[in-house]
């Protein structure tokens, strides 16, 4: 009975979307920061190949974060 | 003529409520960025104000819920909506005066429900909508924000825990510009729509709009402007005190809390759930704090928020019902709303005068 009153599907989708977006975006952005920090450290240690790989990870993660934000806004505006 | 006067009063009261909503919630939106040093207060408040304005145009799902799913629009009159707004503003003012954090959103819905019941009995309330779209999400959303922020910050510490703190802090401060902006956008999206919904409800009741109609553009634009102006003007006074009440967080916690709050509010808005953005943001802040150290959270403040949460809907409903009763004494014309408005304005002036004389802290709502 309660399941009829409560919009269970929408609520579960809200919970899932919030978890994926909130945790996912923060995690991906922290990867970007890890990449930047590793890039700085490896560059200081004169390890250019590893530093470049870290920079690539940072850039990809940053792009992933920005894409996620853009996707979220697009989903909102299409409602 | 009388109906037009009532409508003007209703719209003005609703926009006044929207202004105070932005005024109260400024600190919730920007305090995290300011306390971690991610943004200067002036910049953060101006940015939040702008994004609140933009956010109000993004979606009308919440407005539709408030207008169509909480009370039966067929038995609602502009006077009922007016009394509901008086209930919401009064409860906001009372809790603000006593330093009790409360939800403007729940006050608004409670006020409208109370006045509707006073006018037309319990049949006026759409119980399914009230429970399914307001009460249940109201319980889940802050807990969800707490959980999301807690999991997120735990992952962040695992990923960047061994890196240089300076680089990590700088990185998350830059990130907070985006997460804080998203939070302001989410706030404008969810909160401005409640006012749109209430004005739409009054317009339908007045016969100016068809039932189940979307809010007109002028309603959306005026609600967006009111909440943006409230956000901009409220910040200067509130931020000084609210900033000291927030848990001292690092930039990563601030980013996680803002990201969690924005994610929960935007996802809920998408499905038309009118949330308390105050509770969601506080849930995110507490989650980010508790994941690092449980004792870092001021659980006494959390208890006050829970108490206010329990009281807000019934208290605002009771005041809304009383306001309708008082208005109805003067008949169905404009005299009742005019007199109640004058009484309300007098009360607001008295409370503000008392507050400014004391110089007491202003809690967020």
Secondary structure: elements and pairs:
The complex is a heterodimer of chains A (79) and B (365).
Chain A: H1 2-5, H2 8-44, H3 48-77
Helix pairs in contact in A: 2-3
Chain B: H1 2-35, H2 41-55, H3 61-68, H4 78-97, H5 104-120, H6 127-160, H7 165-205, H8 217-245, H9 251-270, H10 277-292, H11 299-329, H12 335-358
Helix pairs in contact in B: 1-2, 1-4, 1-7, 1-8, 1-10, 2-7, 2-8, 3-7, 4-5, 4-7, 4-11, 4-12, 5-11, 6-9, 6-10, 7-8, 7-9, 9-10, 11-12
Q: Could you list the spans of chain A in which at least 5 consecutive residues all have pLDDT below 50? A: none
User: Would you list the SSEs of chain B in sequence order as H and E?
Assistant: HHHHHHHHHHHH
Going by helix content, strand content and strand pairing, the class of chain A is mainly alpha
Total number of helices of chain A: 3
Question: How much helix is in the residues of chain B?
Answer: over 70%
The proportion of residues in beta strands of chain A is under 5%
Global geometry of chain B: elongated
Calculate the mean pLDDT score of chain A and round it: 86
The main β sheet of chain A shows up as: none
Report how far the terminal alpha carbons of chain A are from each other: 28 Å
Largest sheet of chain B: none
Class derived from helix and strand content of chain B: mainly alpha
Secondary structure tally, helices of chain B = 12
Topology, number of strands of chain A: 0
Helix and strand sequence of chain A: HHH
Low-confidence stretches of chain B: 360-365
Helix percentage range of chain A: over 70%
The quaternary structure here is: heterodimer
Q: Strand content of the residues of chain B, in percent?
A: under 5%
Instruction: Report Rg of chain B.
Output: 20 Å
